[in-house]
Model the fold of this input.
Amino acid sequence: MLNVNNMCVSIKMPVGDGHGNHKPDVEIVQLLLNKHVQQLKPKRSILPVTGIIDATTIQSIRDFQKQVVGFRRPDGRVDPAGKTLQSLNEPSSPFPQAVKNSSPAAVTVTGSFTQFIESLELRHISSNELTRGFGRTIYYKTEHADVPTANGRNSEPPIAIWHNIAPTLIVLDEIREQLGFSIRMTNTYRSPEYNEANYIRSKARRVDKARKAGQSLTFDKAYTGVGKSSQHMVFRAIDFKIDGGSLAEAYRIAQSLRGETFDLPIPLRMSNPVIRKMKYVGGSKVSFSVNGLRMTDTSFVFRGGLHLYPKFIHIDCRGNDSSW
Done:
């Protein structure tokens, strides 16, 4: 039998209330739940490790999500890259809960980026899903002297704009809830240097392709879908894929959520949200609307950008609806 007490284990498909439930994955989740059984109330016996999903296993997942992870609305599902599995892999001791403010006030972000994301109390999204791209480097050089070289490294977003991503994550969490399939983020924050490299690489590749086909395309004339002032640069945007589900269905759900009101987690409730005034990216001014996202003390209305690409979806909470 696999020892899950002193190692971090993974699953290939979702386990619990919904699709997936492959036997080896169910066995792993049952073992992980047994590791934490002493933390759950009411007291219960060790789960039989059968590899078969049943009502008792699903209820144990829900109890773990609510009592240990801190989900307000547990869904009884463990996703391969989700917060529930991340918490199940932690040692079997009580986890520290996010400190909640007793009343709305101007937000002050402190601590690590991971702690900030955990304070949002998302049901399906963990901090490591956002941080995967923070250290990426883009380097692309062509053989053409008139085409610049793309070279830029991404970084963690400045602490002053961490809260910009919160509304987008909350909406994305609801899309995942309604869709019933895992979501994989492929692009979140882009530093100015990284975005510039992405912009140059996109144009350079089109030049290379055109000239290989005998066309005389110049770098300046080459098309690119990468914006020089991307919403990714102010940490409002996410590009994501679906594992096993339909992109078209996810896009339909996203469209249906426009105009919906979402609660803000207590740590982010504020009387004068800074996001409406933020015009800086890593210290540099950018030309975004000063109005930005409109919030109240306790909630926000989803107004943002959406686009369905062939292999991914772009979503952001820019404060006004935009599709392209």
